[in-house]
Write a structure and sequence with these properties.
alpha/beta; Rossmann fold; four-stranded parallel β-sheet; globular
Amino acid sequence: MIKKVAILANGGDVSGFNAVIRAIIKTAENKNIECYGYIDGYRGLLNNNIIRLGTSSTGNAVGILPKGGSIIGSSTNANVFNYPVEENGQTVYKDLSDICVENIMKDEIDCLFTLGGDGTQKSARDLSLKGINVIGVPKTIDNDVACTEITFGYNTAVSVATEAIDRLHSTGETHHRIMVLEVMGRYAGWIALESAIAGGADVALIPEIPYDINSAARKILNRKNRGKSFSIVVVAEGAKPKGGKMEIKNIRNNGAGVDNTKLGGIGEQVAKQLEELTGLEARCTVLGYMQRGGTPTAFDRVLSTKYGTKAMELALEGKFNVLTVIKNGKLDSVSLEDVVGNNTKIGAVSGNTKESNLRKVTMDDELVKTARAIGINLGD
């Protein structure tokens, strides 16, 4: 019998967080189930910072459907299996996951909903091995969570990137420039590829295809020779040249089990090289956090609501330690073990590694075929 459930939102914020939270709460309330939220993701779970959530006229979850961000916050780089602790003036890393388990038991939570991406669901799987009933909901603008066709937050990010491309067209055409747009996409190029198609870009460079800058330059010069004196180039932040590496802006020290690399700079590098190779002026725009914030699209509102209601339905059915997914266009669920894939070591690795089961763009994907068919250069 499910009496109390709790939600945590983890990882980078996306548009749609609140829509999922609202859907879980409303579905729970219709079944007379109490709903709670841990503030600031896994960090809130560790500190047992928990609040009651409700959609009554005086509740704290009223009017949140179109609101960006998360009303219960979110944490990044909070791996409770390898958490930073100060001891004698030094930072050491400890497995504090048992404290999280104790808090869930003390709070009498029958099911924990984890809203997050690859690393979030890896930690969820690890908690499930400690006896906690967990149901994951796939969140990330990168759209790279394994076993599902789409994550919430992705459509909004693509829409923002597409609008940026539309605006860059005007400046590029007016001043006869190459306009480079750097978008998010650390290991997967879904945003870059889909926004390039939607925005009519000429070149799209993604992490899955190491690029030859000369190939992109030839595309732009061919356009110039046909009287088109401007071009639009979309670059995923994780794109890299053939034989090269990703552009890393900074290395953080947040311990093992989290991705400590901060990417940045590939857009500027591509713009500089294309300017030298083509003789056309090039400018770079880094879209950054604009892709994460603000109100979700109608598509993401509906998708998030579907995910939230499905998660609560799974809990009522007693189907735990799974991830809600879209499979063949329909709501479904898969084991968290399938999501983790070969990333099986408990605690030490939370995601974004070679062992992680990330969903990346494949060369036989319809988006790749579509891009090539309409003449978008993919750098190969």
